[in-house]
């Protein structure tokens, strides 16, 4: 019997992961713009229709950024990305956003793990790839709100993309430290500046995480530099992270100080920052237990433990402070709730919970890596193999056995199973038919006041908000402006 290898496990998991994406990618072909997609891109669409010029299109997107910065919201990069939803070229192209979001998620995680495995902990590339695929599977398939995280462009571009940019940014910064080619080093530094602007000018949740993560990384690198140097010399040696951190902080500050934020805050019921921080710690455990962590999530995390151990034991480090690292990571994870509590006195939902979930799982994997490193140093090398194998076997049997008993796999357990159910049941096809009937009305120049039928049974993964009977409602107004109609309403 052939020995099972890490490469073999990686190939099997990769094929399984790719297969799990097929229903999601397939469902995207039934998808259409909705809600904020219209209000964010109406002027951009008109610019494209009237000129057919890419320059005019980007100018309209920039004008949209300026208007929102002054009148509504300072998240200028989020506004820019949401302005460029693919349906401005035709509704049939909207699926591109969903494919791009999934591709960006996969690339950002794989790139981050690639940098660590190639530049820092070498010889364990298949362990890293296995961990990366397990992480990707759980954050995509168990995402709290698949509609706002993947299928709705306005939600994905505003939140999911920002998290991906942050992951790529951290990967690039870490690669610069080990880069030997000056040309590549300075090119990566320039790219890190651009990504810092993308993150700092995006949603406040991810921007705050970006500043916290990079500050933490900066402190860690300073502490790990054990050579006897002047502090000034040490700081000079970490310019590759210090400069992007300053750029991100400045970008974040520019976003926060937007005039539009001041006007918008007058309509909101926020709270003071200290109270927001304390309430973040209060609400976070409840959301973790009730909303974000399920038995499928726990089981996938358990599967990653042996590979995280194999990686950690190769690191020449003592791993003395697992408690401190866990405490720090809990601080980062709970901070995800703070921006919403500060600005609106609530814990958010949908797209904000998605980022909370991605950050939580990232730090769970990091904590487990550190704990496995600590575990490998506790036992003597002679005892390590026996103890570890018994421990893992026990953990896996108990965890998987209990998980099988407790887990009820239904159509909403994973995004793939839900997407497949929508397609196989015919609901997705009927939703597309109803949308195509609407499009005929929207593009009929003889009709100025459009009345549409409400969707019969729209897939939850695809529709964020439908039109309503009253023509004065915001959803009807933005659709009317987008398609250049006098009014739009539902029956």
The spatial strand order of the largest sheet comes to: 1-2
Question: What is the CA–CA distance across the termini?
Answer: 67 Å
Estimate what percentage of residues fall within beta strands: under 5%
Number of helices: 22
The major beta sheet can be summarized as:
2 strands, parallel
Oligomer: single chain
Tell me, briefly, the overall form.
globular
**Using only CA atoms, what is the Rg?**
24 Å
The chain-level structural class is mainly alpha
Overall tally of structural domains = 2
Q: Give me the count of strands.
A: 2
Overall pLDDT: 86
Which stretches are poorly predicted, pLDDT < 50 over at least 5 residues?
Answer: none
What portion of residues is helical? over 70%
Order of helices and strands: HHHHHHHHHHHHHHHHHHHHHEHE
Structure explained in plain terms:
It is a single chain. With about 500 residues, this protein is mostly helical. It has two domains: about 5-30 and about 95-405, no CATH class; about 425-490, no CATH class. Helices cover about 75% and strands about 0% of the residues. The chain has a two-stranded parallel sheet. Helix 5 (about 95-120) runs antiparallel to helix 6, helix 15 packs antiparallel against helix 19 (about 380-405) and helix 16 (about 320-335) packs antiparallel against helix 18 (about 350-380). The longest helix is centred in the C-terminal third of the chain and has 28 residues, at about 350-380. It is globular, with a radius of gyration of 24 Å.
């Amino acid at each position: 019997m052939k020995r099972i290898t890490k490469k073999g496990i990686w190939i099997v998991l990769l094929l399984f992961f790719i297969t799990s994406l097929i229903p999601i990618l397939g469902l995207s072909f039934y998808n259409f713009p909705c809600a904020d997609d219209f209000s964010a891109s109406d002027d951009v669409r008109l610019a494209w229709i009237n000129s057919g010029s890419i320059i005019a299109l980007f100018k309209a997107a920039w004008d949209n950024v300026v208007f929102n910065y002054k009148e509504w919201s300072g998240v200028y990069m989020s506004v820019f990305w949401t302005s460029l939803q693919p349906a401005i070229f035709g509704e049939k192209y909207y699926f591109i956003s969903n494919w791009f979001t999934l591709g960006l998620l996969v690339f950002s995680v794989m790139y981050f793990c690639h940098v660590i495995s190639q530049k820092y902990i070498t010889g364990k590339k298949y362990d890293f790839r296995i961990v990366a695929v397990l992480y990707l599977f759980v954050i995509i398939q168990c995402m709290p709100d698949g509609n706002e995280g993947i299928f709705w462009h306005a939600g994905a571009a505003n939140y999911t993309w920002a998290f991906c940019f942050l992951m790529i940014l951290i990967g690039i910064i870490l690669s610069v430290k080990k880069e030997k080619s000056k040309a590549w080093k300075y090119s990566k530094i320039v790219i890190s500046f651009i990504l810092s602007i993308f993150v700092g000018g995006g949603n406040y949740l991810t921007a705050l995480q970006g500043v916290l993560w990079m500050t933490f990384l900066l402190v860690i690198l300073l502490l790990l530099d054990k050579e006897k140097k002047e502090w000034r010399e040490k700081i000079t040696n970490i310019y590759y992270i210090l400069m992007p951190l300053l750029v991100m902080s400045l970008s974040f500050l520019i976003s926060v100080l937007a005039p539009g934020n001041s006007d918008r805050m007058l309509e909101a019921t926020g709270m003071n920052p200290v109270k927001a921080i304390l309430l973040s710690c209060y609400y976070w455990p409840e959301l973790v237990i009730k909303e974000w962590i399920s038995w499928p999530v726990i089981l996938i995390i358990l599967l990653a433990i042996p590979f995280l151990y194999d990686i950690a034991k190769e690191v020449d480090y003592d791993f003395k402070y697992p408690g401190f690292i866990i405490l720090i990571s809990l601080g980062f994870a709970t901070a995800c709730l703070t921006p919403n509590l500060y600005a609106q006195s609530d814990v958010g939902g949908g797209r904000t919970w998605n980022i909370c979930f991605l950050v939580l799982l990232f730090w769970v994997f990091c904590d487990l890596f550190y704990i496995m490193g600590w575990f490998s140093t506790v036992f003597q090398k002679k005892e390590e193999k026996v103890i570890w194998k018994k421990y893992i076997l026990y953990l896996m049997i108990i965890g998987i056995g209990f998980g099988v008993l407790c887990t009820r796999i239904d159509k909403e357990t994973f995004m793939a199973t839900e997407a497949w159910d929508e397609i196989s049941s015919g609901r997705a096809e009927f939703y597309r038919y109803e949308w195509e009937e609407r499009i005929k009305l929207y593009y009929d120049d003889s009709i100025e006041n459009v009345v549409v039928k409400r969707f019969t049974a729209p897939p939850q993964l695809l529709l964020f908000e439908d039109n309503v009977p009253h023509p004065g409602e915001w959803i009807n107004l933005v659709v009317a402006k987008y398609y250049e109609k006098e009014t739009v309403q539902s029956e």
